[in-house]
């Protein structure tokens, strides 16, 4: 069963596969160095991006995501308004705190390499992280794939998560409705029961309300923030202006259906 917690991810935008996934991969690589006792020996680090990540990553803020992940930040807990201040030392002084601790030299213009004409065999969204000791001796190199939805895999990882039996298994909307009639259940009741097969009902409800709260805060921030969106595309923020124009309209300026769509 595909869980609600697979479908919804909290993290910095704009893309789960191009932003959240690479950020998690970067953090995971640093955790591996730490676990293997190699972090204190690391003097430099480079990141190679392949396929789709190399071709469209800049527009999706992949450079920011990777630097934040290397710094030990978690995409679900990171406040967007802190990002630029956190990245300033890396961009200006080329100093990065691996995992929030050990300082290394990292120049994003040189150490983030976009291999636009190459792909890794495991997945089109491929990354390779390499850490070197003093003198250029390689300490560790690891390839990751951002497989979508913020999930990250290595070639050695299990390709499929363990299957958990659920009380109302369905693979289509038709079957879902049939199950509802057979058991006298509403859709939300069946989904809640399926989710509760792998976590407590309290965890499910708290998780769903967490998603809802993040959505509401994201919308509020978007309506209140003027200027330009982050990223080199320099796209103007449109939501505040659109909202002002809609509020200035008199009742009846638009047919009811179009007014709802506009809002």
Overall description:
This protein has 263 residues and is an alpha+beta fold. The protein has helices at 4-7, 16-35, 51-56, 62-70, 83-93, 108-111, 173-183, 187-195, 201-224, 239-248, 256-262; strands spanning 44-50, 95-98, 102-105, 112-115, 126-132, 138-148, 151-153. Strands 4-1-5-6-7 form a five-stranded mixed sheet. A hairpin with a 3-residue loop joins strand 2 and strand 3 (102-105). Helix 2 packs parallel to helix 4. The longest helix has 24 residues, at 201-224. The protein is globular, with a radius of gyration of 22 Å. The two termini are 34 Å apart. The relative contact order is 0.14. The model has no long low-confidence stretch (mean pLDDT 89).
Measured between the Cα atoms of the first and last residue, the distance is 34 Å
Mean pLDDT: 89
Strand line-up of the largest beta sheet? 4-1-5-6-7
Which structural class fits the helix and strand makeup?
alpha+beta
Assembly status:
single chain
Q: Would you count the extended β strands for me?
A: 7
Number of helices: 11
The proportion of strand residues reads 15-25%
**What's the gyration radius in Å?**
22 Å
Question: What string gives the helices and strands in order?
Answer: HHEHHHEEHEEEEHHHHH
Helix content: 40-55%
Largest sheet: 5 strands, mixed
Give the overall shape, derived from the CA principal axes: globular
Task: Identify low-pLDDT runs.
Answer: none
């Amino acid at each position: 069963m595909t869980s609600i917690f697979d479908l919804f991810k909290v993290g910095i935008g704009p893309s789960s596969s191009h932003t959240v996934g690479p950020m998690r991969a970067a953090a995971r690589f640093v955790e591996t160095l730490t676990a293997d006792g190699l972090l204190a020996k690391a003097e430099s680090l480079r990141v190679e991006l392949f396929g789709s990540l190399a071709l469209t990553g800049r527009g999706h803020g992949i450079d920011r995501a990777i630097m934040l992940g290397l710094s030990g930040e978690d995409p679900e807990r990171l406040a967007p308004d802190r990002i630029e201040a956190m990245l300033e030392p890396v961009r200006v002084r080329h100093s990065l705190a691996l995992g929030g601790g050990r300082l290394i030299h990292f120049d994003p213009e040189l150490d983030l390499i976009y291999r636009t004409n190459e792909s890794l065999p495991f997945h089109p969204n491929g990354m390779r992280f390499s850490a070197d000791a003093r003198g250029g001796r390689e300490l560790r190199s690891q390839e990751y794939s951002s497989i979508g939805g913020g999930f990250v895999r290595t070639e050695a990882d299990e390709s499929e998560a363990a299957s958990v039996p659920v009380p109302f298994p369905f693979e289509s909307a038709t079957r879902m409705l049939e199950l509802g009639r057979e058991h006298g259940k509403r859709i939300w009741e069946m989904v809640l029961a399926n989710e509760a097969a792998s976590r407590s009902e309290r965890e499910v409800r708290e998780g769903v309300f967490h998603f809802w709260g993040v959505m509401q805060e994201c919308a509020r921030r978007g309506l209140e923030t003027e200027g330009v969106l982050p990223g080199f595309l320099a796209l103007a923020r449109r939501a505040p202006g659109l909202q002002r124009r809609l509020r200035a309209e008199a009742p009846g300026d638009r047919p009811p259906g179009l007014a709802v769509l506009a809002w």
